[in-house]
Amino acid sequence: MSVNDPRGPSVDTRITKAKAKARSKAGATGPDRLAHRGCNTGKGATAPEVPWPDDLFVVDPAPIIASVERLARKGGREVMARCPTEADAEATADWLVDRIGRLEPGLAVTAQIDPGGGQFLVALRA
Which residues contact 36 (CB under 8 A, 6 or more apart)? Predict the structure, then answer.
């Protein structure tokens, strides 16, 4: 295939950018192998993610890891999701506080539920 095609050839060095930079300064090269361009490109483009559970009814869920990093760095308030009922919002808030307590034990967060527009916003405050 052409190099412009996702199934075209690409060199996969099997090392991170930081390791590649350190090796290039030292003059060493890493082990290379041939890979599909689409596979090789997609491999480095994925961010770590904490999945939302399927039993919670949430709309527009925020990415949890990025939100926790901002709360730990700057504090303040982060809106995490919208829920159609107050019961859904309370279950979501309880789950978030528990999950973030495990993800970032030193970060004290509280959940806040705000009604508005026929829905309930779930926010975290650090």
Answer: 6, 7, 8, 9, 10
Reference 96, options 125, 59, 118; nearest CA is 125
pLDDT tens digit string along 37-60?
666 555 555 555 678 888 999 988
Q: How far apart are CA 71 and CA 90, in angstroms?
A: 20
Is the Cβ–Cβ distance between 34 and 11 less than 8 Å? yes
Catalogue all structural domains in the chain, each as residue range(s) with its CATH number.
9-43 (no CATH), 64-125 (3.30.1370)
Q: Which DSSP helix (H) or strand (E) runs through 124?
A: strand 119-125
- Confidence (pTM): 0.61
